[in-house]
Amino acid sequence: MRKVTIIGAGPGNPDLLSRAALDAIDIADVVIGAHRALAGIDVPPDVVRCELVKTADIVAALTDAASWQRAVVVMTGDVGLFSGARRLVEALSGDARVDVRIIPGISSASYLAARLARPWQDWRFASAHGVACDIVAEAERAGELFLVTSGGEDPSRLSGELVQAGFGDARVTVAERLSYPDERITCATASEIAGQTFDDLNVMLIEFTGGAGSPANSRWPYASSGIPDELFIRGDVPMTKQEVRAVALAKLRLAATDTVWDVGAGTGSVSIEAALVARAGSVWAVERNATGVRLIRENADAFGCGNVHAVPGVAPEALAKLPVPDAVFVGGSAGELPSIVEAALEKNSQVRLCVPCVTVETLTEACALLSGSRFKGFEACQVSAARAEAVGSHHLMKAQNPVFLVSARGAGGEGGAR
Predict the structure, then answer these.
(1) HSE of 182 in the Cβ direction (CA atoms, 13 Å)?
(2) Least confidently predicted of 207-211, 264-268, 362-366, 378-382
(3) Which of 255, 322, 349, 371 is the 20 to 30 Å CA partner of 210?
(4) Number of C-alpha atoms within 13 angstroms, CB side, residue 160?
C-alpha cells in the first residue's frame, strides 16, 4: 500500500520541523508543498520535488507519479488549524490503495503564545485569510481572538473596523514573519494599529476589553430581541414593530451561522435583529424602495451589523443570485408571495419561513401556502400588543395594529440544499 504523510511544517523556519517529519522526508520518493513550505528543507537529491499548493494539483501529481510508494506533502503551520490538510485527506480517502498519515506541526498560534510567554487555551480562532470575517461580531463576543490574516493591510483594515465600531481600545498584537530572522511582533491598541503597514505574512491576536455585546457605541448592548422602535433610523418607509419582531425572530428559529433573507425589508429593523442573532452568518435585505435601501444601510452601520447586505431590487427576481437561505422573513411581498416562497424552496427545500400578515387576504394566502404538503410545522398566531400612553397624570393602554404571523419549515428530505 502506498503511504502519504501530510506534515505540518510550522510557521516557516525549517528548524521547527519535528524529528518524525524529518524522518518521513528522508525516506520519501516524492515531496510536495508550496514554495514557502519547502524552503530550507533538505530534500534528498534522488527525491522528486514538486512545488504545488492546490489540492487538485497535488492529487494529480500523485496520480501521475506512478512509481512512488512514500509521498510527503508539506503544509505550513499546523495541519489542524485552517489548513488544506482536511481537503487533501478527503480527496485521498476514496483510494483504498493509499494510507494517509498526519504529522502535526507547530502552529502560528502556539508559537506566538510561546513568544508572548502566555497560555493560549482560552483563545478563540477565526480566519480572514481569503474569507470574510465579521470582526465587529467577534468583538461583541469579547475574550481573546487569534486571527489568521493575509496581506499587509489586513491588520490595519480590521483594526480600522474595530475603531469605527467603538472598539478602539482593543489590544491588538500583530505578528509578522514568525520564526524567521526578521520576525516582528507589535502590540498596541486597535486605534494605534489602524493605518500602519505590515508584512504580508502575519497573524493577529486581539484582546477585547469589557463584557460581551457591549461596544462603546452600540445602540443595543443586549443579547435579547425586541429593540425599541425609536432606536432605529426612521423615515416614511414601513417598519415592523418591536413586539412583532420579537415573536417573528422566535418563529424563525435562527442560529448563529444562519443565512437569512429579509424580503421587503423596509427600514431593515428585522434584518438588524436577525443579524445580531446570526452574527457568524449573513442577512440579505431585499428592498425595492431606494429610501428603504438607504435606511437599511444606515441602520446596519448604526448597530454595527457588517453582516447585513442591502439588496436593491424586486422579488422574486432579486432573489435569484442570493446565497442559499436557512430562514426567510417576508416583510412585504407586493402580491408575489407564492413566487417568493417558491424561490426560497428552490434554494433550500428545508428553509424556515415567517410571513407577517396585516390583511385578511394575505393571511388566507399565507396559510394556504405554508400549510400545504411541501411544509411541516405550520403555525399561525396573532400578535396583539398595547403600549402605555400618558394621558395627563395617568397612562392608558393604546392598542397597536394586530399582526398575524404564519410560519413553517420546508418538508424537503435530507437531500435538501441545507
Answers:
(1) 5
(2) 207-211
(3) 255
(4) 9
Residues forming beta bridges with residue 100, ordered by sequence position: 4
Return the pLDDT at 210: 61
Indicate if the pLDDT at residue 349 is higher than 90.
yes
| CATH of 109-208 given 2.10.109.10, 3.30.950.10, 3.30.420.130, 3.40.50.150 | 3.30.950.10
Topology (CATH) of 2-106: Cobalt-precorrin-4 Transmethylase; domain 1 (3.40.1010)
Average pLDDT in the chain: 90
Can you state the percent helix, strand and coil of the chain, rounding each to 5? Answer: 30, 25, 45
The whole-number average pLDDT for the span 173-185 is 96
Contact 286, 267 (CB under 8 A): no
Q: What is the DSSP letter of 318?
A: G
Provide the sign of the torsion angle of the four alpha carbons 203, 208, 214, 215, taken in this order: negative
Say what the pLDDT of residue 417 is: 44
In the CATH scheme, what is the code of domain 229-410? Answer: 3.40.50.150
Strand partners of residue 286:
263, 311
